[in-house]
Design brief:
By secondary structure, the chain is an alpha/beta fold. The chain contains ten helices and six strands; from the N terminus they run βαβαβαβαβαβααααα. The longest helix has 14 residues.
Amino acid sequence: MLADDQAVVRDGLAMLLSAADDLEVVATAPDGTRAVEVVLAQRPDVALVDLRMPGLDGAQVTEAVRRAAPEVRVLVLTTYADDDAVLPALRAGAAGYLTKDTTGEALLSAIRTVAAGGSVLDAAVQRRLVDLAGAPATAAPAPEPELPEGLTAREVDTLRLVAEGLSNQQVASKLFVSEATVKTHVNHLISKLAVDGRPALVAWAWRHGVVSG
C-alpha cells in the first residue's frame, strides 16, 4: 500500500512498484487518515507512507499502524532529510526512512528489505540524526553517555558502530566477530532499550550521546 497526497507522485510510485515481478500494489491513499483505513482493510506487507500528508502525517500513520496492525511494516518517504519529523517517525516504529531523491532501484530494494523484516535508513537521514544530536563545534571531550544497566561492553561497542551507519558485516569486521553475533547483539539492544527496530535504535544512540558528530 502506498500513501501520498500528490497524485502524480502516487501514480508514479504505483507504476514503478507494479513493474516489479515480486511486488503488487494492493491499494493507494491520498491522505494519512485514508492510509490507516486502507492498511486495516487490506493488511499489506508494507505501507509506503509519505511524511507530510493531510489528516494524519507519516509519523501519526506509523504509530496508528504499529498499534492496530503490528504485522504491517511501515516505510516512510520524505522530500527533505532535515524534516523535523525524522525522529518522531522513527520513534513511532517506522521500519525504514528514505528521502524521495532515492533511486527507483534503491526504493525497490528497501521495500524488499523491510518486507523481509529488515530496516533501512537513508544516508541523508543518518546525517540529519547527527545534526539533531547537536554535537558541539569545539573539540572538548563529550560527556560519557548515560546507558541503562544491563548492557554489556560488546553491546555498547555494537551500538556505537551501528549508530555510525555501519552494516552488520562491517560491525562484525570491526569487532572480529561473526555477523550472526552482531545480529544477536542488535536484537538484544532493541529489546533492552525498548525501541522498535534498527532505525529507532540509531536514533536512540544519537539522542543519548553514544556517538557524536
